Amino acid sequence: xxxxxxxxxxxxxxxxxxxxxxxxxxxxxxxxxxxxxxxxxxxxxxxxxxxxxxxxxxxxxxxxxxxxxxxxxxxxxxxxxxxxxxxxxxxxxxxxxxxxxxxxxxxxxxxxxxxxxxxxxxxxxxxxxxxxxxxxxxxxxxxxxxxxxxxxxxxxxxxxxxxxxxxxxxxxxxxxxxxxxxxxxxxxxxxxxxxxxxxxxxxxxxxxxxxxxxxxxxxxxxxxxxxxxxxxxxxxxxxxxxxxxxxxxxxxxxxxxxxxxxxxxxxxxxxxxxxxxxxxxxxxxxxxxxxxxxxxxxxxxxxxxxxxxxxxxxxxxxxxxxxxxxxxxxxxxxxxxxxxxxxxxxxxxxxxxxxxxxxxxxxxxxxxxxxxxxxxxxxxxxxxxxxxxxxxxxxxxxxxxxxxxxxxxxxxxxxxxxxxxxxxxxxxxxxxxxxxxxxxxxxxxxxxxxxxxxxxxxxxxxxxxxxxxxxxxxxxxxxxxxxxxxxxxxxxxxxxxxxxxxxxxxxxx
Length: 509
Ligand SMILES: Nc1ncnc2c1ncn2[C@@H]1O[C@H](COP(=O)(O)OP(=O)(O)OP(=O)(O)O)[C@@H](O)[C@H]1O
Ligand SMILES: [Mg+2]
What we know:
rod-shaped, alpha+beta, binds magnesium ion, 509 residues, Heat Shock Protein 90, binds adenosine-5'-triphosphate, five-stranded mixed β-sheet, 12 helices, 53% helix
C-alpha cells in the first residue's frame, strides 16, 4: 500500500497492537471490580447488622429470664426453689445472676457458683448505634472473657409494683453465635456478590465491552490498510455515546480514504506532468533550432515574427525545465527583476493574438511609466492565464461566431503606496456564483468546456509567491480580476523605460 502513496503523504506509524491478554481486558477488570464493590457494600451492611444481632440476642436472653421470673412470681414459688434447681434454671437460661430492682433497691433472685466480674452493661433499647457497634466488635474479638449486665424495665409484677430485671451473663455463648452469624453473612455475601457481578458483567459486556472491542479491532485493521474500502467501519443504529463514536469513526475513515485517493491522483498527475515536460522540452528545443534558422530569412514578415516565436519557444522550454527541476507541485521561487508592465501586457496580447482579434477588442491601458519588481516569466504567465480565460469565456458565449467585435478585454494598472494593482476585465458572461468559492483551487472550478481548472490556481500561487494577492472583483458586467503586487513605481525617463525590459528573450538573442 505504502508504495502507491505519494512521497509527501505521511501516514502515522501503525504499530501492531495485540489483542488484550487474557485477564487484562476490560471484561475481567469489570468482573473483579464488581465483586470487590459488592463485597465492600456487604461489609458496610455487616457491621451494623452484627451490632443489631448482639442487641437482639441479649434482649432475648433478658426477655426469657423475665418471663421465667414472671411465671415463678405468679406461682408464688420463687423463694422455694432449691439451690440445685436455681442453678439448673440459670444454666438453662444461660445467665449467671438474676436480680430485680424495686424502688432503687436491688434484690438478688438467683446466682450461679462463680459469677464473673461485670465488664460492661447493656440497657435494652437505650444503646446508641456507635456504642452498639463498638461493643459488638469487642464481643466478636474477646467475647468469652466479657461479663455483661443486661438491664430492662419489665411489666408490672402481681402486686402492681414496677420493677427492673437485671441479668449478668458471660458473653461466650454470644460470641459463638456471632461467629456463626458472621459466617452465614459471609456465605450470603459471597453468593450475592458472585450473582450480582455475573449479572452486571454480562450486561456491561453486551452493552459496552463488545461494541468498544469491535470499534478497537476495526481501528487496528483499518490502520493496517487505510485504502481498503472494506475496512471502513459500518455505521451504528445506536444513539448513545458508543454509537456516536462509531459513526464518527466511520465518517473519518471515509474522509481519509477520499483524501488519500485525491493525493494519489495528484501524485500520478504530477508524475505524468514531469514526463510530459521532459519530452516536450526536447521537442521544443528542436523547434527553437528551426526558428533560429527562420531569423536568417530576409522576408520582413518572417523578420517580424521570428523573434517572437523564438521567445515564446524559450519561455515554453523554461516552464518545462522548471517543472522538472522543482518537482511536480511546486513553482520555482520568483526571480525578481524590474519589469515594464505595459510591454509585458503587449507580449501577452501578441501570444493570444489579441492585437488583431476579429471579435474581441483588446485595450492595454497600462501606463508605459509603470515598472514592477517581479519575475517577468511568472508575471507573464499570471496575466496570460487571466486573459486566456477571458478570451475563452467570450468565445464560449458566442463572441467569436459572428466575426464582428462584440466583446472587449482590457488591462489597466494603478499605483498606490508603492504597490501596483493590475486589473484584467472583460465583457464576457462573468463567473457563475456556484464557481466563486472554489475558483482558485486546483481542479475544482473547471466548467466542463475543456479546461482543467488549473489556470487560476497557478496564477494565484504565482501571485502569492510575489507576496501579492489575486482576487475576483465585483463587476456589473463580465469578469474582472485584480492582481496586487507589493513593489512597483513610476519611471520618468522614456529611454530608460525602453531598456528596462531585461527579459530572457532579449538576453538570449
Ligand atoms: N474571465 C472569465 N469569465 C468567465 N468565466 C471565467 C473567467 N475566468 C475563469 N472563469 C471560470 O473559471 C473556471 C476556472 O478557470 P481556470 O483558469 O482555473 O481553469 P480553466 O480555464 O477551466 O482550465 P485551464 O487549466 O486550462 O486554465 C473556468 O473554467 C471558467 O468557467
Ligand atoms: Mg484557464
